[in-house]
Amino acid sequence: MARDTAADTLERRQKTSSAKSTKPAVPSRKPKGSVAVGERKRDPERTRAAILAAAVQEFSQRGYEGARVGAITKRAKINKRMLYHYFGGKEGLYVAVLEGRYEAIRSAEAELDLTHREPIEGMRELVHFTWSYFLEHPEFLSILATENQHRARFLKQSDRIVQLNSPLIDAIRLVLARGADQRIFKPDIDPVQLYISIAALGFFYLSNRWTLSTIFRRDLVAEAELDAWGEHIATMVLAFLKP
Predict the structure, then answer these.
(1) Residue 107: pLDDT above 50?
(2) How far apart are CA 99 and CA 104, in angstroms?
(3) Residue 21's pLDDT is what?
């Protein structure tokens, strides 16, 4: 029973955070008929946001093949013509969702202001942020898993993705360089390899938490286990960085 309670707690935490990050800023009540569509036409940004929010939910729950345009338009409370007008179709919408999910995490990372922190503090903060973001945004991990099944076929169509990721790698590179200058980090650490290691330690844990919990007879979704794993990642990364 304790295990079920812990699992339920994690799922509620993830669903609540996901709902907050994808909920469009639209009125809770709308007139029936075509009036709502007319209102959306006069507010294209709100319409676009509503479509994207609905698409995030649909693609994260059903993958690319399983997602249905009709289900997305129903969630967004718009007609199909509007979806095709803004995104050109399912494929264009999916690429926009990918870009939006990457933009969301990169914008949040930028607020860490890593380049103005002490090296050890900055790296520890990046590790804990990444772990917390994965916990709070399961839709991000689901969409990444879907896109990897397609071998980044859709991601390759985006001209924005490299631009979105470059600032993070540049920030990590600067933190590593400052740490090396202070002789608290060893020199010549590849910032891309380091970030992949940080992300992998969190991603693998969450994507396999149910099987690992069963195999090792240990409740890996309990709050104490989740907190301990975040600290474990930070400890490993900082130990690796020591000269």
Answers:
(1) yes
(2) 9
(3) 47
